[in-house]
Design goal:
By secondary structure, the chain is mainly alpha-helical. It is 60% helix and 4% strand. It has one domain. The chain has helices spanning 4-30, 51-54, 67-71, 79-89, 104-116, 120-146, 149-160, 174-189, 193-204, 214-225, 236-239, 244-255, 262-265, 277-286, 309-316, 320-323, 326-334, 337-356, 359-370, 385-388, 393-402, 406-428; strands at residues 37-38, 44-46, 288-294, 297-303. A two-stranded antiparallel sheet has the order 1-2. A hairpin with a 5-residue loop joins strand 1 (37-38) and strand 2.
């Protein structure tokens, strides 16, 4: 494999970082952030910083200095605020919503701050970017092992240039989870089950989807050891370690005077409710009413259907002023079109991949796509799906297998890069993306 296995992922990482960071920095520091909206009483009801920034004054972050002012500040928004709060205050029963965020990433932010004195969000930014580089390095080797280096190169480009891939640079868990998931599967693929189990446990402490690594690990384990239980031990023990992630997290919550299953139960704070996958799509396409549990009671909400109108609107008024207006950008952000396209596109790739990809690829991808459909949000039925697909690398391997024409590949890369730049600017100015 040689030097290319190191050089090529580094090149992809640099290109990705430039396409994400430069637009974010320019938009955040020189553009206009999404304005606040007020009700008749003059109270802020929407806009600007997320709840975690704006609710409690003592939690507001200070302005960073030096390079972090330019690099980190645009990338610490939205969920980055929650991770900052956790890294400073830990899990707090007075703020039960913190239980929705798994602990490894904020722990790294806290430990890095204690070690270096740098701000917690600066450490998070560094962790995310180094983790993405590491993920690309391992992913190149894994895909080359299962296919070849040509498919590995295409897969890395497809992943790094995806329109929502800026989350790999932001203070979010996407990069760390991708690194740990790919590392787990690469170790398991090579039969290194103790290493795979340890890394898998860390993945399960990073995101709830980490426990779902048990599915592809089980596929690889049975392919290597068959169905005879006598051959399973001792490697079956470390192979099951990802199952301990939620157990450890639940224990941590109880030590913080919270409940063991609060990491599940507090999802209501994002207006999530129970539904079947087909009900979720019905709510997305047609709208629906949903009963959402809030503050110990159940309230009925109307779930707005997908809004396509912003597309026709910009075609009727194709001016720069209209394109950059708050009203149009907010309409586009709230329209759920991106969520719908990413979700449907992912399932199409999954279906095609059942015949073209190794079985453990499909086993890795399907559960994290199904579970969010069981708990849609009344705000966005397919909330965060454009972000949830990012660590599911087999989707991008499938793209690499399908796009074999060089001109088509270049055209798709350019279009995707433009989408990456535009969505990064949306994110950096407090517009909803995923």
């Amino acid at each position: 494999m040689g030097a290319e296995a190191i050089q090529f992922p580094i090149v992809v990482w640099v290109v990705h970082w430039l396409l994400s960071q430069i637009p974010a920095t320019l938009a955040y520091h020189y553009g206009t952030s999404r304005p606040f909206q007020y009700n008749a009483a003059g109270e802020v009801i929407d806009g600007g910083p997320s709840w975690a920034y704006s609710t409690v004054t003592q939690w507001l972050p200070h302005e960073l200095s030096g390079p972090a002012h330019w690099l980190v500040e645009p990338m610490r928004l939205w969920d980055g605020s929650w991770y900052r709060l956790l890294s400073i205050f830990g899990y707090n029963p007075e703020q039960m919503a913190t239980a929705a965020f798994f602990p490894l990433y904020p722990w790294l932010m806290k430990w890095g701050h204690q070690l270096t004195g740098w701000s917690e969000e600066t450490i998070g930014y560094i962790v995310s970017n180094l983790a993405f580089l590491g993920a690309l390095l391992i992913l190149y080797r894994l895909v080359s092992l299962d296919f070849n280096e040509v498919i590995a190169r295409r897969s890395l480009w497809a992943l790094a240039l995806f329109p929502t891939a800026f989350f790999f640079t932001a203070v979010y868990t996407e990069s760390l989870f991708l690194l740990l998931a790919v590392g787990t599967l690469y170790a398991a693929r090579r039969g290194e089950w103790l290493l795979a189990g340890i890394i898998g446990l860390l993945a399960a402490l990073t995101r709830s989807a980490g426990v779902m690594l048990l599915a592809p690990m089980a596929v690889l384990f049975l392919q290597q050891y068959g169905w005879n239980p006598r051959r399973w031990f001792p490697n079956a023990i470390p192979a099951a370690l990802p199952a301990a992630g939620p157990l450890v997290f639940g224990w941590i919550l109880t030590r913080s005077d919270m409940k063991f299953f609060d990491w599940v139960n507090q999802q209501w704070q994002w207006n999530r409710f129970s539904a079947t996958p087909w009900r979720t799509f019905e709510c997305t396409l047609q709208g629906c009413t949903a009963e959402v549990r809030q503050f110990g009671t159940t309230n009925e909400f109307y779930v707005k259907p997908i809004q396509w109108g912003w597309i026709g609107d910009i075609l009727k008024h194709p001016t720069w002023t209209h394109f950059t207006s708050f009203e149009w950008r907010d309409w586009m952000a709230r329209g759920d079109v991106l969520e719908f396209i990413c979700t449907v596109g992912a399932f199409i790739l999954i279906i095609i991949g059942l015949r073209k990809l190794p079985l453990y690829y499909s086993a890795f991808t399907i559960p994290p796509m199904i579970v969010p459909l069981l708990s849609p949000s009344s705000v966005h039925p397919l909330m965060s799906m454009p972000r949830f697909v990012l660590p599911l690398f087999p989707l991008f391997v499938m793209i690499a297998l399908l796009v074999t024409n060089r001109k088509a590949g270049i055209g798709l890369a350019i279009a995707s890069s433009i989408g990456l730049i535009l969505l990064t600017m949306q994110f950096a100015q407090w517009y909803w993306v995923a």
